[in-house]
Design brief:
Structural class: mainly alpha
Strand content: under 5%
Radius of gyration: 21 Å
Number of helices: 6
Largest sheet: none
Helix content: over 70%
Length: 122
Amino acid sequence: MEKILLNKTTVQAKLVSKIYFFLKKGFKIIGFEALIWISGLVYLAFFSPLDQAHFTICPLANAGIDFCPGCGLGHSITQFFHGNFIESFNTHPLGFFALIVIIYRIYSLLKLNIINSKKAEA
């Protein structure tokens, strides 16, 4: 019985080690900034455009001021992700352009990190 538990523990330790190595390597390839941008876009994609009560770190919104260009960009990108293109443009005309810039930034960061990781392996 001890031999079975020892083998099971060894297999679990190897699995955890492989998962840790995969996550560590994946994080190096993605990078912190790209991870933040990707997380932000995923949040905006799943955020309901009709729900106004959401978590925000915006100092203007937290102060009770309704107009904030940054919040407008976020709402515009959310509307765009949900297929409301006209409403997206009405919320903030530069929302689609901001989305393109963010996607390009993520692409360039991933490309740079992949090149750097290949150089480090060589």
